[in-house]
Write a structure and sequence with these properties.
319 residues; alpha+beta; two-stranded antiparallel ribbon; 5 helices; 17% helix
């Protein structure tokens, strides 16, 4: 009965250790021709189970799983253990390495401004700063040194520096885009001022000078007004001389000329000689007309010397 049990046990051990049989077992089995007990099969190797098969009376030297003879037998493939062989016990020891990691979760440094990664090949944690440079933990981390910004560290830990409307630290920040204002930053109040530039213009309508004697335009290059004189306008009465002695030449306030016809006074008209029809009959019509013509010339010279102030009265002829 004991032989049967031993034989069964040997078969079970062979089946269990089939995948880890020492490659030298066959050699050692052939070296021992026969055995009657296990001690006859001792191969002096700590990591083998030496068994005598009492059925065939041959030795079996089966490798013991987990047994070791040197540190290299104990490599478990992970960087986070220190692998060593306890020769006295004949088994491997895998001591954890402090600070070593096997996954990213073990590298959390509780700093939201770092990317935490485990380098599994070496078991070393890597905590690199975020790609964005404005990562923060608190508002103070976001101070940009600009008095015109509100510095805040929001929930996403990316600094926010919002500019205060109208606040400035230099003139360039006050540019209002208008060509006719001078943009200035008041450093005492950190506020912008935009005083108008004298005689500056952006369109022709801003250049009207109330004179009809100029063409008013805005020079878009220099933003200044140009008032080009109108040659048809006058500035003094002499500009309006039409060469007619029977007109009064004047330059009006709007720059236009006036040439009013001279009107004879009532006294001048009364002084004109009357046409004497009876005398014309006696001396002939031609002589009478010559007298009238001479009288009109004298009157014309008198009117030119003394311009009239009243309307024109036509002379009356005698019947």
């Amino acid at each position: 009965m004991e032989k049967v049990v031993r034989h069964t046990l040997i078969l079970l051990m062979l089946a269990a250790g089939a995948c880890s049989v020492d490659p030298d077992v066959t050699v050692r089995r052939s070296a021992l021709a026969s055995c009657t007990q296990d001690s006859d099969c001792d191969d002096r190797v700590r990591c083998t189970a030496d068994i005598c098969n009492l059925v065939s009376h041959t030795c079996l030297n089966l490798a013991i799983s987990g047994c070791c003879t040197q540190d290299s037998d104990c490599d478990d493939g992970t960087a986070c253990t220190q692998d060593a062989c306890s020769v006295s016990q004949g088994r491997c020891l895998h001591t954890p390495v402090a600070g070593c990691c096997t996954g990213n979760g073990q590298c959390n440094d509780r700093n939201s401004c770092t990317d935490d990664t485990c380098i599994t090949e070496s078991g070393v944690c890597q905590n690199l700063p975020h790609p964005h440079e404005n990562c923060c933990q608190q508002n103070g981390d976001c101070n940009d040194g600009d008095i015109c910004t509100v510095d805040v560290c929001p929930a996403d830990h990316a600094c926010s520096n919002v500019r205060l409307p109208g606040c400035c630290t230099n003139d360039a920040q006050c540019d209002d885009g208008a060509a006719c204002t001078r943009d200035v930053c008041d450093l005492a109040s950190h506020s912008c001022a935009h005083p108008a530039i004298a005689n500056c213009c952006i369109n022709d309508g801003q250049c009207a000078d109330a004179s009809t004697c100029t063409t008013d335009t805005c020079d878009g290059t220099t933003n200044t007004c140009v008032h080009t004189p109108n040659p048809a306008c006058c500035t003094v009465a002499g500009d309006c001389n039409d060469g007619d002695p029977c007109t009064v030449d004047a330059c009006l306030a709007n720059g236009s000329c006036s040439n009013a016809t001279i009107a004879a006074t009532e006294d001048q008209l009364k002084a004109l000689p009357k046409f004497d029809l009876s005398a014309a009959r006696k001396s002939g019509l031609r002589g009478a007309l010559r007298g009238v013509e001479a009288s009109w010339r004298d009157t014309e010279r008198e009117i030119a010397a003394n311009p009239p102030k009243t309307g024109v009265f036509l002379p009356r002829t005698s019947k």
